[in-house]
Amino acid sequence: MMDGGGGMLELLRENPLLLFLVAAIGYLLGQIRIGNFSLGVSAVLFVGLAFGALSPELKLPEFVYLFGLVLFVYTIALASGPGFFASFGKRGLRYNLLVVGVVGVAAIVVAIVGSLFALSGALQAGLFAGSLTNTPALAAALEAMKGRGASEVVQGLPVAAYAVAYPVGVIGMLLALHLAWRLWGSKEKLEESEAGGLVSQTVEVTEAKVVGWTVEQLTRAHQWRVVFGRLQRAGEQQVIASDTELQIGDRLNVIGTADELKRVVETLGSAVPERLEEDRHALDFRRVFVSSREVAGRSLAELELPQRFGVVITRVRRGEVEFLPNKDTTLELGDRVRVVGPKNRIREVSQYLGDSYRALAEVDVVSFSLGIALGLLLGSLPIPLPGGRTFELGFAGGPLVVGLALGALGRTGPILWQIPFSANLTLRQLGLILFLAGIGTRSGYAFVQTLAQGDGLRLFWMGALITMGAALLTLWIGYRLLKIPLGVLGGVLAGLQTQPAVLAFALEKTNNDQPNLGYATVYPFAMLLKILLVQLLLLSG
Question: What are phi and psi of 313, to 5 degrees?
Fold first, then answer.
């Protein structure tokens, strides 16, 4: 009869129970806080390593982590597409130049350390890919070695080095980001709180110099970042249009930050305590969910809501962030917008926008599956390199590039590529758990075995040095010299590392979507750069 321990291992090997056990225990451990530090969802990775260390056969199928990786990367890319392309220019260039410098320095350090300790090119490649936790780079190294006729034993060297360096690559980045948040996070929160959220103010026009000017002309001339909602003139209220001309005595309802409202008041006249929005006899307002697939993916200029319904949208809430719209703002599924207009038109415009919470839980399976299929197809195409070699974007790069493009497009004719915000978060979290559990269980045994061998401990400390050096260099240069906000910088660090666990940690720390922007901006270039550099390291040994 099989003993209890052997019976449990056999059960886990042959049963999907392993996946859910790793996920559940990892989530519980991730909630444990030591001071201000907690692993969050990244604890799933370390629980997976612990289970994988018990037996070489105790691992989840390769499909689990690959499917999780595709799901996570594609949903992140869809959500980040508009911000990714908008960030190109001076800001995006700074982020990517930072990544080029740090990844280049890391590759040089690996080559120098490898030369000093007589490490083969295969071990250097695995050490580089593992310390920067880049699975596509490891796959590129293995493919290059296979093409050169390397034996299976030699092909196992980069895998062993990768398995040792990978866990410390994740832990080192998490510790570095936690340290940065302890040092600079409180200051950043203070700056954010001082900036304040959106507020409304009633402004009375008393300055003769603005009489006859339209709202649009004044907004452009002074570059105000505000939205005008209602106008009260001679005791009657109406919705402010872009061509509304101001008169002495007009009272305007203006929405923006406190600083911007102060600028508006200084130009137009004086602030008054009356709150126009409290008078709901002629005009009313309502929060409406955007759930119509005909509306999503279109800009406010295209929708022409003032012309068609006589209403204006004064605020947009997307996830946890509320912001002011403009004519170029593209509405997305799951947006909650504040509509101001005549009482008899509010219901009509609500129906037009959708306003169905149930619809927001649904995903268009056709467009979602088609987008992933296009990503996997792109990832499988060989891209030529100098010297007749090729590389592939793989399971991560292909869906990422396609997701960014489709997310920026929003829709192509009748096909809406976006998915509701809440559904995106759910699928993203599911993909992350599958990825962490899968890669953890598959790396656990090799990690422990390599660590126990002669070169294991040495590779471990080399990986720790490379990881911590790259992380601290990125954070110090990015925050101190380039003045990148810490929330965005956390995403840049995760993108440089091409590591979903670090991104999840940054998101938990910031409690907003800033890390996603940094991640999506540098991830594609960082991954391609590491795929190229890992093959150069192979040739150096």
Answer: -100, 120
